[in-house]
Amino acid sequence: MGTKWITGFIVACAALTLWAQQEEGRNPYTSAEDVAAGADLFGKRCALCHGADGSGGTGPDLRRGQFRHGGSDAGLFRSIRFGISDSGMPRLGMPDERVWQVVAHVRSLSRSAKEIDVPGNAVQGKQLYLGKGDCSRCHTINGVGGRLGPDLSDIGWLRSTRHIKSSIIDPDQDIDRRYLSLHILKKDGQAIQGVPLNEDSYSIQLMDLQENLHSLWKRDLDEIRQEERSWMPSYQGTFSDSEVDDLVSYLYSLRRKTDQP
User: Fold this and answer.
1) Model pTM?
2) Domains in the chain: ranges and CATH
């Protein structure tokens, strides 16, 4: 009787400790076994976007231990469990314990900034962005620039250096579908080219290459053609290898501050 009571008391205390840690936002699953389980889950569910080693791909590099949507264990838990809207990060339908294990693995990926220094000079990269590349004609940074391409104000939070470099050299390789090349021919012979904004069964809206907005009835159109390519040109050959590194360094530095825990 006494042994059962003591065992029950120990189990209750362990459960209470686990609950308290979760309430405080601390990860209750941090053992070596948890980290290993988290690594397995990461490889199956996260590596496609973040790379097998966490160095990034279409998703950001996780090795720096810096996160836009909260740097605490609780913040990471929320990002993984519920996803992040408008970032491409989906919610993962896993039990809480599994999510905490992924958090433990992500923490284990952290490296010092010195170990993962980004090559290139950000100051020179900014000059290339504004000058030789004329990138602000199509891209906005902190409210300044064009609207034909993605807003780059937070690109350093959202993408890895690898993905940023690939987008500069081969922009057709991985295109955000919101910026596909759209070609429209009206029945009166007028041709309009631009990027899609919205579409339903009866109408289509787009922004043309001069950033004029068009809302058109489909009954007035002869052709709607969307191509799997970007209006952005490749900068392969326009920039030298070192200049590409400079531009990548500048874009990767674009990280607006966040106060989220």
Assistant:
1) 0.76
2) 2-115 (1.10.760.10), 118-171+234-252 (1.10.760.10), 177-230 (2.30.30.100)
